[in-house]
């Protein structure tokens, strides 16, 4: 007789069947599996599974470059997808980042693209011809399960593609994996009874973040060049920052969410948004621009008809920009490496002729309070219904309501009013900065940490003051890696040691930052926040920061 | 001892103090007051209160023309506002359309504008320099009461202007009145214990519509050249159509709602929107374009940063357009004059080379069901709180919830999901029309009635199937007058007489349409519906229809 609960058995079966989809010849040797290095990213080039060509292909960070090489027949689409399937398989064995494996379908699709290319005398289907695109397991792919890390959703086969899946296919992309997410989708790490825990490829003792952690870790392993995550409180930004990659959290209404699934479906006060997670800023630009060029508002009623605005992108690259900077969210102080990343950014921007002024966050806790009440307004009923399907228990730490947090519709409407009034005050604060900038304009954007720590251990509770305001106000944010944790430079300073503890979360963060050794190999990511619906400008400004950092170093 | 309830006394006092603000010399003679003509619009030119100049000024329908004459010093701003104050005062005495009278402030403001003009050697403040703009009493004007037709809100003095009030002032406008609306703001007529009933200027035995009925009737009286209403189920469109004027119901996020008041404040599933009601399509274009040119998204966080798009406006004026047409909403059949307006529109458009195809509304009742559940989700608590402030009773017929209609947050979220799925299906239906249009594109827009009758009596319950879907899906709609009820042409036909009754509402409508005599002097208005956020195109298409009708007649 099995000692497992029926739901545990179902989960185990799912994990096994997923694993079984990895061909034998792509399986890592027991020596690595049993004794993996702390830094998983070194394995792909050393394990012998990837050919020289596979490595060459998967080391290209730039989508345009890879697409160019396919269009120039340097690589076939089949070669590219084979390389990525292999590398994704290796990644999964090391960090447990996948939710669905579609290697067979991917090879068929790549073959179709190669045939199309040949039969048309060298035509590509679109800018993503032959480019592998990974999707968090909230997206529907016709004929494939969308379990969304709920055991109760196993067997839920999608009848249609999500709108965004259709769009990337229309542009020539190849689907090959869906990636792991946490149960409830409301957790800043990637953990579920169904899929287990996803590890951070840079340092497996740490979390890969969440909820889009499968994407983050897969991309850091270079098992994907571009994937799609979602963000309702930081779910793109945590894993983007923690895995040292690039990402965009747009405002609601730009990237189509149609026919994608979610927890709290129908909760529209703080809309979840979809954004690309990838390996360069130019990829973000290309992806976002390419999606908009298909006019997604014609097929998804929730998308605004706002095309790519080149002028706004250029506005983000002006010679003299003015940045606000957040150095403390009122809850958790910055650990030395994050503080150093902020300092580097300030210095680099000032050296490049831009201005940086302090951004006051005294009102952030008030905003987060509204946000959390919105998350929890249903008293956790939505999640409970999903759990009840299988009988599984909830993972601890999820931002999910309990019976006592349920409120009435009237109270919910008052929360919306509170959010709207808060947004108005926040915008007034933003506009008022024109009195102190040297440009005469209000600040163009804000540089902000994602988190006080460069990364965090598994089952760690984080503050969302650095990320949540962006969701509450539907601002736009671009995340980029700034610097790697340095064993010398990031020692605990007297200032950090003697800092007044601001909250329980601050206490925990300080206890966790025992020194840079704990965060060895981690990369600190920061975000550039712009006004609502100013995605193009945020991308432009992130490019300015990246360039300034290059020149500064 | 008074036989009145305290709230009745307060209301009476308010009405009296409002009336007292009308100067003696602008008071209509008792002969008219005691025996007003059915058609109030004939009074202003006959009553002797308006000078020849006053009449000349107020008969100009075009904002641009009026602004031009002010800028050319043909009229001073003071002359213009005096003329409009007088005419608004006359209108109020006839149809009871005002909620606040600001004549003194208006004259001061006009004097300021004239002084500015002189002192700057002929500079105007903006495109609305000296133009009177009226506002429904949901808008805040600093220092003025915003009672919103609730007795309990009397004494609620606004501390700040609504965002849109600030914007029109920045463009040079003059505020002079706020207009009547129904208690609850959820009634398709304009009736409250506070302000009484507003009558239809074209035929005082009929309703002026609602909830923006004060605007509609004031503008029909030419007591305003342009006013602002709001629409959550038809509240701009009913009074626009019933008063024979022009209006725009935009999608959410284009015209700033910041610091305006509302019933159900915070109810965001079906957002109420603001739109201009006015006396020509070119005024709608000018108003909308002028507001957008101030970049309202920089000061109101709910506004999308979408500028005026001239290309989309031009797209609405293409040589060959394809229109869907709605002739039955599944609930109420079209009465003869409305059917004739539809037929005229179809014939005129086809003669002008455009295509018109039938638009299926089989799914409209399903959408309206979702919409009404959303309105009533709070069980009427919001309105009850407003009523409780004074003890007044609710006006019958309001689309307001009762305790038994209250739902949980979880159920509310499911309603949002239902609306989103409905929107997706509706859009698919729209896109599928490209298979049957001769343009090869999906239909460009839809011609639709506002109501089965050309107007309706007071305290009449109407169907919102013709209007509500536009709100549920946040589509855009431009309303224009098509034809006047004709005592010969609009006799009851055998077809109308023998039509199968579709619903109780249909039965009531048929009983109400006793013949064209009942609707003497009424004008039938129709709406052009375009996709979400396609305001510019809808304006362009309405112009096409108006031009086609001119050529056709």
Can you describe this structure?
Two copies of one chain form a homodimer. Chain A is built from 20 helices and 13 strands. Chain A has helices at residues 6-20, 30-34, 43-46, 52-58, 63-71, 77-95, 103-119, 163-170, 213-220, 237-242, 281-293, 310-315, 336-351, 364-375, 381-388, 409-432, 465-472, 494-498, 504-512, 535-552; strands at residues 98-101, 132-136, 174-179, 191-192, 196-197, 226-231, 246-249, 273-278, 322-325, 355-358, 445-449, 476-484, 523-530. An eleven-stranded mixed sheet of chain A has the order 1-3-2-6-8-7-12-13-11-9-10, with helices on both faces. In chain A, strand 9, helix 13 and strand 10 form a beta-alpha-beta unit. In chain A, helix 6 runs antiparallel to helix 7 (103-119). Chain A is globular. The N and C termini of chain A lie far apart (63 Å). The model of chain A has no long low-confidence stretch (mean pLDDT 97). The interface between A and B is large, with 45 and 45 residues. Chains A, B: Residues 80-537 form the Amidase domain. Chains A, B: Keywords: Hydrolase. Chains A, B: GO terms for molecular function: amidase activity.
Overall strand count of chain A: 13
Low-confidence stretches of chain A: none
Largest sheet of chain A: 11 strands, mixed
Beta-strand fraction estimate of chain A = 5-15%
Strand order of the largest sheet of chain A: 1-3-2-6-8-7-12-13-11-9-10
CATH fourth-tier homologous superfamily of the domain at 6-297 in chain A: Amidase signature (AS) domain
What's the CATH C level of the domain at 6-297 in chain A?
A: Alpha Beta
Alpha plus pi helix count of chain A: 20
Provide the gyration radius of chain A in Å: 22 Å
Question: What gross morphology of chain A would you assign?
Answer: globular
Average pLDDT taken over every residue of chain A: 97
**Helix fraction bin of chain A:** 25-40%
CATH fold type of the domain at 6-297 in chain A: Amidase signature (AS) enzymes
Q: Which structural class do the helices and strands of chain A define?
A: alpha/beta
Q: Biggest chain pair contact, residues each?
A: A-B, 45 and 45 residues
The CATH architecture term of the domain at 6-297 in chain A is: Alpha-Beta Complex
Which oligomerization state do the chains in this entry correspond to?
homodimer
Distance between the termini of chain A: 63 Å
Organism (chains A, B): Rotaria sordida
Pfam families (chains A, B): Amidase (PF01425)
Catalytic activity (chains A, B): a monocarboxylic acid amide + H2O = a monocarboxylate + NH4(+)
Domain Amidase (chains A, B): 80-537
């Amino acid at each position: 007789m099995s000692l497992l609960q029926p739901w545990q058995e179902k989960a185990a079966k799912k994990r096994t069947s997923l694993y079984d989809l990895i061909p034998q010849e792509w399986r890592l040797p027991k020596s690595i599996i049993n004794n993996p290095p702390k830094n998983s990213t070194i394995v792909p080039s050393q394990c012998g599974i990837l050919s020289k060509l596979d490595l060459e292909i998967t080391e290209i960070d730039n989508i345009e470059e890879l697409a160019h090489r396919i269009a120039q027949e340097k690589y076939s689409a089949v070669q590219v997808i084979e390389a990525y399937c292999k590398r994704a398989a290796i990644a999964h064995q090391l960090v447990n980042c996948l939710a669905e494996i579609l290697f067979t379908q991917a090879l068929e699709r790549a073959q179709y693209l190669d045939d199309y290319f040949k039969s048309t005398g060298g035509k590509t289907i679109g800018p993503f011809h032959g480019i592998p695109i990974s999707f968090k397991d909230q997206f529907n792919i016709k004929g494939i399960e969308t379990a969304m890390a709920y055991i109760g959703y196993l067997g839920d086969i999608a009848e249609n593609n999500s709108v965004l899946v259709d769009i990337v296919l229309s542009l020539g992309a190849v689907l090959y994996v869906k990636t792991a997410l946490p149960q409830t989708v409301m957790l800043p790490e990637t953990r579920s009874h169904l899929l287990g825990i996803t590890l951070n490829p840079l340092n497996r003792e740490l979390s890969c973040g969440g909820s889009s952690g499968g994407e983050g870790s897969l991309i850091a392993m270079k098992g994907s060049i571009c994937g799609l995550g979602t963000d309702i409180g930081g779910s793109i930004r945590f894993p983007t920052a923690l895995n040292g990659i690039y990402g965009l959290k747009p405002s609601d209404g730009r990237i189509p969410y149609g026919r994608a699934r979610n927890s709290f479906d129908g909760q529209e006060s703080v809309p979840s948004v979809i954004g690309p997670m990838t390996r360069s800023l130019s990829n973000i630009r290309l992806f976002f621009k390419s999606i908009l060029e298909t006019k997604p508002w014609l097929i998804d009623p929730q998308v605004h008809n706002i095309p790519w605005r080149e002028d706004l992108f250029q506005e983000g690259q002006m010679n003299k920009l003015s940045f606000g900077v957040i150095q403390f969210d009122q809850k958790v102080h910055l650990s030395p490496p994050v503080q150093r990343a902020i300092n580097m950014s300030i210095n680099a921007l000032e050296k490049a002729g831009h201005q940086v002024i302090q951004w006051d966050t005294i009102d952030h806790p008030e905003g987060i309070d509204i946000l959390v009440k919105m998350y929890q307004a249903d008293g956790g009923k939505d999640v409970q219904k999903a759990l009840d399907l299988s009988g599984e228990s909830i993972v601890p730490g999820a931002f999910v309501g309990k019976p006592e947090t349920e409120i009435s519709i009237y109270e919910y409407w008052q929360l919306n009013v509170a959010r709207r009034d808060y947004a108005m005050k926040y915008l007034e604060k933003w506009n008022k900065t024109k009195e102190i900038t040297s440009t005469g304009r209000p600040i163009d954007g804000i540089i902000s940490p994602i988190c006080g720590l460069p990364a965090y251990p598994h089952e760690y509770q984080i503050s969302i003051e650095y990320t949540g305001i962006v969701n509450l106000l539907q601002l736009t944010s671009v995340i980029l890696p700034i610097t790697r944790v340095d064993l010398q430079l990031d020692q605990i300073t007297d200032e950090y040691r003697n800092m007044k503890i601001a909250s329980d979360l601050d206490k925990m963060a300080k206890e966790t930052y025992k020194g840079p050794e704990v965060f060895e190999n981690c990369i600190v990511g920061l975000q550039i926040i712009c006004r609502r619906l100013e995605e193009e400008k945020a991308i432009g400004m992130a490019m300015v920061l990246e360039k300034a950092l290059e020149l500064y170093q």
